[in-house]
User: Fold these one by one.
Assistant:
Number 1:
Amino acid sequence: MPNIAKINNVQIGNVANINGIQASNIANVYGIDNYIEPSFSDSYALSKTISTGTSNAVYFVDSSDTFNFVGGDAWTISFWIKAGWSSSLNTNIHFVVGHKNNTSYQVEDGIKVLYNESNNRIQVRYGNKTTSSNTWYKDGQWLFHANSGAYAAGYSAAGLGSSYWSATNRGYVGDDDFTMITITKASTNLASSLKLYWNANSAGSAPIQSNAGTANVNVIPMSATDDRLWSVGARGKYGSLDQDKAGNSSATLYNDLTIWDKELSASEVSSLYNSGTRMDATTHSASSNLKGYWQFEGNGNATVSNHNFTIAGGSNTTEI
Amino acid sequence: MNYYLLTEEQYKELKKENVSFMRKNIEETERVVSTTEKIEDSKRKFYSNITLSNYTSLNHIKWVGDGTRIDTEEIDEEIYIKELDN
């Protein structure tokens, strides 16, 4: 019996036959000598500098199609964030962006999650754009400061009150003043498939939805094979634009980014939120659908997937 | 589409149902808008979304806090809703 890994919740007095097993091979038997601490640690976060350009970016190129979601795919992107921007930002700060590598258009094979500070709303858009006039996109926007009608869910979920989201008004937060933002998408290729969670609080489907563009989604579908550039804390690199829209005032912190190839349910998001304490996502009940996991514990290396973030220039990982 | 720089007073007179994009400056004393309405007494009229974007780049201290500009894609993509005026 050399391969027993876990005997959780079993009182040692009730274990009859473990003769001959070396204690060092038993990983989790609480209350006995040689107990091995879980490997999960959470002491660092990614600090994305407000300095811009590739030389200060946090990015990787997915050349193995791991995160090449297309319009009919279900997916979830979740991350913890500690706002560093001020109320005078008055423009967008991009949280997570994936688009075709070497492109002229952000939305070519694109998925983007951003905060529009000037209008106090999170915006999520995915779609495709192959020329200036040949495009389609699905777009959801959640407004946070209007406690009425379709906007009330976002107002209640975020806890920002009537003031906009910033470093001085972070709304509902978990440990270390981080907020867990989760975007889920069902497989239907419509803006109504997008949902937003602020921590474990559901803001529901977007109160502002747009299914727009001139192109037929079947004529220029999102590619499942083109390499994509994924960026955190800036809007990616396309055309003449190079990793800008990274905020103002002070660096925003990001932590425990996860990408899943399913639409997490409300209960699964709540489980991931873990009452406000960041958890080891590899132990989550949906971990078989966890395709990317970056803890930023001292570097940009992936815990799940083979795609390590380059963390350049003034961006770094910082002790929480 | 028409693109304007307006004072708060001029903006108040605008028919909001015709507005597709609106952005306040940082001090919230002026607004840039795109609207189907034709305005004769605007503070400034822009030839296109590009010239509006260029104006905010030249005057970025007044309009955006990160040293960039209001992009044409923001002008085209943002959806105006009346709750933003609250």
Number 2:
Amino acid sequence: MTTPADNITWLGAPTFPKAARGALADTQLRRNLRKATTTIRDKRLQATGELADWEQLRDAGAALKERTLRHLDHYLLRLEETVTAAGGTVHWARDAAEANMIVTDLVRATGAHEVVKVKSMATAEIGLNEALAQAGIHAYETDLAELIVQLGDDRPSHILVPAIHRNRAEIREIFAREMGRRGRSAPDGLTDDPRALAEAARAHLREKFLTAKVAVSGANFAIAQTGTVGIVESEGNGRMCLTLPETLITVMGIEKVLPDFSDLEVFLQLLPRSSTGERMNPYTSTWTGLTPGDGPQSFHLVLLDNGRTATLADTVGRQALACIRCSACLNVCPVYERTGGHAYGSVYPGPIGAVLTPQLLGPGTSAHTDSLPFASTLCGACYDACPVKINIPEVLVHLRAEVVEAKRDHRLLPTPEALAMAAARGVFATPRRLATAQRLGGIAGRTLGRRGVIRRLPGPAGAWSDTRDTPVPPKETFRAFWTRTRGDES
Amino acid sequence: MSAANSSGTSAREEILRRVREALRDVPDDEEPAAVPVPRDYLRSHASSDVVAMFAERVEDYRATVIRAAPGDVPSAIAAALARRGARRVVIPPGFPEADLPTGDHDWIRDLPPLALAVLDTADAVLTTAALGIAVTGTIVLDAGPGQGRRALTLIPDYHLCVIRADQIHDDLPGALGALDPTRPLTFISGPSATSDIELDRVEGVHGPRTLDVVIVADPQP
């Protein structure tokens, strides 16, 4: 079995607590995130509150995903059959390197040296742009937020809005500085009015759209029954890429397949209301193979595994594959709102990233990926917001246990947690030992504490207390109190 | 399998093998349909006046709605084009000739297919629609007569769409049932927009920045 090439996480990414500390100190970042997540949370609640049967839709969405995942081989084979019958070509890629090779070869075969791209998590996950660049092919990101990230030589920090960490003034700065180097310059006197910024992006990319020969996209869904593939978007950059070039290459995770066309009646209600808080996003395009005289005359669908089958094998973690990439869980997460997406060191940030990234790569991959299941307070807001009811807290706890197990298996000496637990077993063994430990602990705690709080615990417990305050133990334990006041009754 | 993907067959077999191995907990004789999917969600969220709701929801997304009686379509089109200052207008094959107004217009026909550069110089595109969806304020194009290939409604900056009241469905489930998935479908809800700057919606990026929808009332019985 080949291990997935790790383009999912960023090379040398620090562990989450370390990265979070830096992010938390960035007041501009925190202001930008608070503003954006507050805006979108209100919109989502309004859009979902409009539907009296929202919970029934979530149940149907979760069930459809479960049906698909439990019979994934069946639906993938059916999809291959229907896409091929409609004139498309289906490719299978075990990992990122294989997917990149397939796409690079397909682009080369057209003779093109540049491609236009629709925003796609799958191609970000495999590092396609970098792979194409090595082959001398330039990939132009056309989604506004992806363009901001690409021009700023930056990294995405959100699933839906990769440039959420940037405010309008920063975006204006990037456009004014970088657009001219890669094509049409931003107009003189560009302001930070979002309308003006959108207009600058329109002008910058127009010529690319009208001349591109090859487009690369992801897919929001593909229908096994009909071979229909779909993209949900807002700006029209998706329509441009799906309509104007001669060749269209779509890279799709194998879990994105859906059984029937009519199932879209569930997902086209769940997705826009959960992601942008709209009743419907401005544009949804679907296509089934080729249509003579309309759109691309060559269509390739690349089905990507890259750790998904390994995730599927875990009966608890499997549910993470139901994700429709709406990003509602990021927007409601108290941790994400404060640290932003970069702290997760992965193309999949936030709560869903904390369960998806370690699973796609496997437990024990690195100290960084092992830290991700702990990047949560387990408050459950993500589970409540998820349109397909992925129980993210359940998977987080499950993965935490796996990380601990994996650590134990790889160590000669027991972990500090294991030592602490063994010591606790000894202390709890007799009432006398517990009383002694409590008395000593009380004295030590009051010595270390300041104003009722211990900031940093001594010894190996210091790491644990990095992210937690410990209350100073009371002067008298409950057991001592009981003996003093009611001791004669026992 | 394309020549570009010489290892394709083995990748296919291996991925399918991995999937089946991962699903060892699923009984061999379990049929996909045996996994229950509760379908107790509503078939429609529409109010009783579907056409009024469609008009209201289309306008919610900053498109302009024009209501017209069956005989008044040419004058409604003429008025809309005049208001937007559009003279060079792309007309897809199959658009009803009787609905075209007389006057100072340059109708650009897509026969033979227009070059993209020509489409880029047009002021507007005038189309019919496959259907409308009231609850979401959506028009759906299926490249049928009067709509043309997808590029026609994408390059011009102004899209004027004529839809009959009897084409408006209440909600998504009914509308999807009436569509042919083998045709290229475009669901349009308002003009092009983005929420990418501070998650606030602004209209007008790559697609048509202006969308006007003419709703033609049912003929009086």
